[in-house]
Amino acid sequence: MAHKNKSNESPYKTRNRTGPRTHFGKHKKPEVIYELNEANDRLADIFHNHDFKLVNHAQRMKLAQFYRLLMQSQTKENFTRLLKLRDIAIKHFIDSLLILDHINLQFPLLDVGTGPGFPGIPLKIVIPDQKIILAEGVQKRVEFLKLVRSELDLPKLEIIGRNINSEFLYPVQGVITRAVEDISNTLGNVINCLELSGKVYFMKGPGVDPEIHKAIEAWGEYYSLDRDITYSLPKTPHQRRLVVFEKFKHREIEDQE
Fold first, then answer.
1. In 3-state terms, what secondary structure has residue 166?
2. Taking the domains of the chain in order of start, what are their residue ranges?
3. What is the pLDDT of residues 115-152, one digit of tens each?
4. DSSP 3-state of 237
5. Per residue in 191-242, pLDDT tens?
6. Residue 207 burial (C-beta neighbours within 10 Å; 0-12, 13-18, 19+)
7. CATH architecture observed for domain 31-247
8. What is the pTM of this model?
9. By three-state DSSP, how is residue 174 classified?
């Protein structure tokens, strides 16, 4: 199982680690779940107000469906700490998709530790013709992802119910993750499934430099740092780093007895 990096100041942490331990993992339920058309209209306003133009009407309607499924499931399961539509629109939807303004992703694309589907589901909605694989080790989330795939009719979307480690050999050209796992750990876990010239896209917070240096030191024989892009979510104070590593050398797989 992957070890989380507790020192990284990532905006993608799902638990408050500064408050009393009694609040860790507390299950909060949404106070309101908007009907589909109203959710779609509200998303349109939010996207417009934040200069976000990467989705069309049909794609925005699917994002509204995804919002409703997520909130309906949140009444029973603790899938997200974000419960207001505005927060979901900005910190989940815009955040997942804004990287398309900065890079061209490589496919098939493996979303490692996707949770309830971020960034993989929004990316699949916007890029329906490309193959995306969602990997998630928590069974309740896996069942939710299958529900989303069915309800939104998302083609070329595979769901793998397991944690990814170096024994995972499914060949992919790209790996993406918004999880808080240390960069070095992820590079090691995908070393045998990522093909040569394949890229790993890390969606991180601004304080990621120690992770980058550690990863270069640990994996410089196999990966090179390809991109390090600093940006912010439009019309918000939220800072982001998109760190991309490219694999240039295979590692020999040890024979298993």
1. coil
2. 31-247
3. 999 999 999 999 999 999 999 999 999 999 999 999 99
4. coil
5. 999 999 999 999 999 999 999 999 999 999 999 999 999 999 999 999 999 9
6. middle
7. 3-Layer(aba) Sandwich (3.40)
8. 0.89
9. strand
